[in-house]
Amino acid sequence: GTMAMLDANQQEGLIFGTGWMADGIWNYAASFYAHAHLWLGHSRKAASTLYAFANHACPLLCWREEQNPKGQKENYVGDMPHNWASAEFIRLVRHLLILERREELHLLAAIPAAWTNPGNKTQLVDIPTSFGPVSLTVQMAPTGKAASIQITPPSRPGPGGEPPKKIVVHLEHFPKPVKRTRTELKNGIFYTNVDFD
User: Fold this and answer.
1) How far apart are CA 27 and CA 4, in angstroms?
2) Rounded distance, CA 96 to CA 43, Å?
3) Would you kindly state where each structural domain of the chain is located, as residue ranges?
4) What is the three-state SS of 137-193?
């Protein structure tokens, strides 16, 4: 299908020839492509596309609209900086970690593997969702054998007026299989300790 065709037409981890330039990379199409993989449940592909997208930023951490891959004759078109690309990058990071799926809120659905290395901390504070603001912290133990996850769920209904029917925390993308979880609710905040094999 379409995704298989796009998967087969990549250079440097991004789709090739989708913009104005037949031999170029439309950088922020990476977000559309990664989101499609995310919706299909291809979490690893979505996360790796985030890194490919990031690797095409300039040294000032912004993007040109289109450019050639390395090693080809230099050519480019469009705006620089292309702020839509910056917005798409932020949107993709947010959705890899906090994603609304109809009446459910999915957390860590495509957390990049490198973010779960021993000692790493990932934190999002008061991120707007359609259910209201959400905060999320993942702290990996220095040994990598455990993680603590803190979730402040929406405390008020979002723009749609309804809280999520379910909050799903994805643990399947951590580096080791989950051995045990323990969750406590204190003052409206969920504290989860995860032990890995």
Assistant:
1) 19
2) 8
3) 2-96, 102-196
4) EEEECCCCCEEEEEEECCCCCCCCCCCCCEEEECCCCCCCCEEEEEEEEECCEEEEE
- The phi, psi pair for 150, rounded to 5°, reads -120, 125
C-alpha distances in Å from residue 39, one per residue of 32, 85, 147: 11, 20, 26
Joined tokens for residue 18: 């989708």
Q: Does domain 102-196 have CATH number 2.60.120?
A: no
pTM of the model: 0.91
- Within 10 angstroms of residue 176's Cβ, the number of other Cβ atoms is 14
Q: Which amino acid is at 96?
A: L
Could you read off the pLDDT of 85-131 as tens digits, one per residue?
A: 899 999 999 999 999 999 999 999 999 999 999 999 999 999 999 99
- How much is the pLDDT for 80? 76
Are residues 3 and 37 in contact, defined by beta-carbon separation less than 8 angstroms?
Answer: yes
Instruction: Report the C-alpha gap between 183 and 192 in whole angstroms.
Output: 4
3-state secondary structure of 73: coil
